[in-house]
Specification:
271 residues, alpha/beta, Rossmann fold, seven-stranded parallel β-sheet, two-stranded parallel sheet, 9 helices, 15% strand, KR_dom
Length: 271
Amino acid sequence: MSYPQPSTSAYALITGASQGIGEAIARKLGAAGHNLILVARREEVLMRIANELAATHGINVEVFAADLAKERDVDALLDHIAQREISICVNSAGIASFGAFMDQDWEYETNQFNLNATAVFRITKAVLDQMVPRGNGALCNVGSAAGNSPIPNNATYVFTKAGVNTFTESLHYELKPTGVHCTLLAPGPVREAEVPAEEQTFVDKLVPDFLWTTYESCAEDTIRAMRKNKRRVVPGPLSKAMDVVSTYAPRGSLAPLLGSFYAKMGEEQNA
């Protein structure tokens, strides 16, 4: 089957839709005429985006405020989408931590695992329960180039993203005969096109602007890949370089180098 076309009865479900990649993809799908279900914690932000997209594109936009790190909120979301026809699903919600694993706040680490991995796992099953019998649908899970290799001082994040990467790519092959498209988005660093000097991190200052992938271009690349049922999309030059290096460089030398870089990110985050 082909990539789902807009329908008055169907919805595209996007988690993490209040900012970043999730918001950018929601805006692109809305502009293409897809009805939307926007999921994130910040209801007021989602309402602003929803009202704008509904008025601009004449689509139905539902807001579902939820903390997907919490089992009860995932339960509620799954109950909600069970009453909707989900034609497209983009699992974009995620968080990260930096610094030594044993120094991290355990509640945050647990929430990170639940959000990045468990929620993706459960939502994926729920939407495929609809899509596979229909023989139509498109699923995109947001993993990371960071999930390709061990990264000290980023251990929980790479644990979750390595799982999302291989889980989604495995499903891609399983789902091919069903007609359901399944794509992994595995980005490296992504940001706004312009970041004010006072808001720049040391990574923003270290990496030249031309190497960055913007949220908008990432969304365009992702939707193009979903349409073609590509197994994996890695947007932008920096992400592609990270993908190659993390896949083929010797881990014994790469891991300590990456670990020192992420340790500095942890220092900045906790400053």
